[in-house]
Design brief:
The protein is of the alpha+beta class. It folds into two domains: 179 residues, ATPase, nucleotide binding domain (Nucleotidyltransferase, domain 5), CATH 3.30.420; 210 residues, ATPase, nucleotide binding domain (Nucleotidyltransferase, domain 5, 2-Layer Sandwich), CATH 3.30.420.40. 35% of the residues lie in helices and 18% in strands. It is built from 17 helices and 22 strands. The strands form six sheets. The protein has a seven-stranded mixed sheet with strand order 16-17-15-14-20-21-22, with helices on both faces. Strands 3-2-1-6-13-12 form a six-stranded mixed sheet, sandwiched between helices. The longest helix has 25 residues. It is globular and about 60 Å long. It holds the Pfam family FGGY_C. Belongs to the FGGY kinase family. This is FGGY-family carbohydrate kinase.
C-alpha cells in the first residue's frame, strides 16, 4: 500500500508485485491560504488516511497488504507535544512567510549548505521552524508538554501519520528531513547551526533511511483504517521522490519529470551532484544512490490561468499547426524562479502579442518544453549523466500532443507509466522495505538486502514515445532565443547560458 498526502487530498493505492492496482481510495483535504500563508490541520490528514485506506480495502482482505509507506509534501512541518498532538497548524510546502528566516538560516549554516550543495529557501521547513520559534509558537504557551526538552517536537507531514499508524514515536526519514536542515552526507542534524538559530530547545526526531521498517500497525490504527494489526510500516519519502520511484526511473543516469501545476525534475546519480548555485538538492535513495533534482515554477498552471475553462484538447489540436509559435513564452505560474536558476524577481513573459488563442496556447506548451530542455542542460553542466529514455509523470501526461512535443524538443525517447500517482512510488518503497527487512533480494555482501530493480514489474509502462529529429531541429533556434532572453533579463547566469546554447 502506498499513501500519498497531497495538497488537496489523500490518495491510497494497493498494488501487486506485477503492477496491478488491487485497490484505490481517496479523501479530500482543505487548508487556509492567504497572502503567502498556507496551513492545514494535521488531524484532517489522519481522518483522510482512514477514509482513503478503508475505501481502498473495501473489496480486498486487509491481510493481503504486506506493508505500507507514506509520502508527504516536501517542506511541510509542524510542532507537536511529547504525545504527538499538534501544538501548531501545519505550515505547508508552499507557505512563504519565512523569507527573513530563510536568509538568517542560510547565513547561519552557509558552510554546511555549501557542502551539501543547496540553499535554504523561504518554503523550506527549517525557515518555517525559525518563523514558528520567533512567533512564539511551541514555546510552552500551548500546554504543559509543548516546551522544548520534553517538548515541542519537530514533525513532518509523513511523521504525523506514521506515528499514529504504529502508536509510538518513530524516526523521520532522511527525505522529509532534508529541507529541515538534516545533513544527508554526515547523517546528522547540524546541531551547531541549530544552536546559532536558537532552535536547540526543539526536539528534533531521530532520522532513518527511506525503506526502513518503522514498526507495525497498532490496534487503534487498525480500527481507524481497516488495515490488519501488525502490518509493517515502512519509512517513506517526499512526494517528488515518490514520483521518481513510481516512474520506474531507478538506474544511474535516468531522469523523471513530474509536470503538473509546476515542473519537477529528478534523476539518479551514484554520488551527490554538487551545485554551486544551490538551486538543486540531493535526496538519498533507498538503494544507496542519490536523487538530485529541482523544482521549477513553470508548468501547466499557466494554461489554466491563461485559458480558464477552455477546451484544452481543441487548443492542442490547433497548436500542432504552430510549431514553433510566433512568440516565445516563459510560463511561470507565480512570481520567482527556483530551478534551473534562482531569480526571485522573475516573472512570466511573452516576447510579443500572440496571433490568436491557438498561437498563445502553443507558445505556453512550447515554453514549458523549452524550460524542461534547459533543466536537463543544467544537470549536464553539473556533470550528471543523462541516459535514455526519460520518464514523464504528472497530470500533464493526459495530453498526448504535449507528451510528444516534449520528447521532440528534448530529442530523447520518453516513457509514460500506466499509473503516475506518487502513491505508486510508496507502494514500491513498501515492497522494497518489506524485502529488505526480511533479507530477500539477494544482493552483494554489504549492500541492502533488496534491490529496486527486483521490483520493476510493479511499474507498468503505458506509452513509449520516440522523438522526431526534424521537430527537434525546428526548436533549436527558439531554444537559443529563449536562453538569450533569460540571460538578457539577468536571471540566467552567463555560464549556464553559454553551455545551454552549445550543448542543450
Amino acid at each position: 500500500m502506498g499513501v500519498d498526502l497531497g495538497t488537496q487530498g489523500v490518495r491510497v493505492l494497493v498494488v501487486t508485485d506485477d503492477g496491478e492496482v488491487a485497490g484505490r481510495g481517496s479523501a479530500p483535504l482543505t487548508g487556509h491560504r492567504d497572502d503567502g500563508r498556507h496551513e492545514q490541520l494535521p488531524a484532517h490528514w489522519w481522518d483522510g488516511v482512514g477514509a482513503a485506506a478503508r475505501q481502498a480495502l473495501r473489496t480486498l482482505p486487509a491481510e493481503r497488504v504486506r506493508g505500507l509507506a507514506v509520502c508527504g509534501t516536501s517542506g511541510t512541518v509542524l510542532l507537536t507535544d511529547s504525545r504527538g498532538e499538534p501544538v501548531t497548524p501545519a505550515l505547508m510546502y508552499d507557505d512563504a512567510r519565512a523569507g527573513a528566516e530563510a536568509r538568517d538560516a542560510q547565513e547561519a549554516g552557509a558552510d554546511v549548505w555549501r557542502a551539501l550543495g543547496h540553499r535554504i529557501q523561504p518554503t523550506w521547513a527549517l525557515a518555517k521552524l525559525l518563523w514558528l520559534h520567533r512567533a512564539g509558537r511551541g514555546d510552552g504557551s500551548e500546554g504543559p508538554d509543548a516546551r522544548g526538552g520534553g517538548g515541542a517536537r519537530v514533525c513532518h507531514q509523513a511523521d504525523f501519520i506514521t506515528r499514529r499508524l504504529v502508536g509510538h514515536p518513530v524516526p523521520a526519514d532522511s527525505s522529509h528531513a532534508l529541507k529541515t536542515g538534516y545533513d544527508v552526507l554526515h547523517r546528522a542534524w547540524p546541531t551547531e547551526v541549530l544552536d546559532r538559530l536558537g532552535l536547540s530547545g526543539l526536539d528534533f526526531p531521530a532520522v532513518t533511511a527511506p525503506g526502513t521498517r518503522l514498526g507495525t500497525v497498532c490496534r487503534a490504527a487498525a480500527e481507524a483504517t481497516g488495515l490488519a494489526e501488525g502490518t509493517p510500516v515502512i519509512a517513506g519519502m517526499t512526494d517528488g521522490c515518490a514520483a521518481q520511484l513510481g516512474s520506474g526511473a531507478w538506474g544511474v543516469g535516468r531522469w523523471n519529470t513530474v509536470l503538473g501545476t509546476t515542473l519537477v525534475l529528478k534523476g539518479v546519480t551514484a554520488d551527490p551532484l554538487h551545485d554551486p548555485a544551490g538551486v538543486l538538492y540531493n535526496h538519498l535513495s533507498p538503494d544507496g544512490n542519490w536523487l538530485p533534482g529541482g523544482a521549477s515554477s513553470v508548468g501547466a498552471g499557466a494554461l489554466s490561468s491563461a485559458f480558464p475553462g477552455a477546451d484544452l484538447q481543441r487548443l492542442d489540436r490547433q497548436a500542432a499547426g504552430r510549431e514553433p509559435a510566433s512568440v516565445l513564452a516563459y510560463p511561470l505560474v507565480s512570481r520567482g524562479e527556483r530551478f534551473p536558476f534562482l531569480a526571485a524577481e522573475a516573472e512570466a513573459f511573452l516576447t510579443g502579442p500572440p496571433a490568436d488563442d491557438a498561437d498563445h496556447h502553443a507558445a505556453l506548451l512550447q515554453g514549458v518544453a523549452l524550460a524542461e530542455r534547459l533543466c536537463l542542460a543544467y544537470v549536464r553542466l553539473l556533470g550528471a549523466p543523462v541516459e535514455e529514455p526519460v520518464t514523464f509523470t504528472g497530470g500533464a501526461t493526459r495530453s498526448p500532443y504535449w507528451n510528444q512535443l516534449r520528447a521532440d524538443v528534448l530529442g530523447l525517447p520518453a516513457r509514460i507509466p500506466e499509473h503516475t500517482d506518487s502513491a505508486l512510488g510508496m507502494a514500491v518503497l513498501a515492497a522494497y522495505g518489506v524485502r529488505r527487512a526480511s533479507g530477500g533480494g539477494g544482493t552483494r555482501a554489504g549492500a541492502p538486502a533488496a534491490a529496486l530493480a527486483d521490483l520493476a514489474g510493479m511499474v507498468r509502462v503505458r506509452t513509449v514515445l520516440d522523438p522526431r529529429p526534424e521537430v527537434r531541429r525546428r526548436f533549436d533556434q527558439p531554444f537559443a532565443e529563449l536562453v538569450g532572453e533569460l540571460e538578457r533579463r539577468g536571471w540566467l547566469p552567463s555560464e549556464t547560458a553559454a553551455y545551454a546554447r552549445e550543448h542543450g
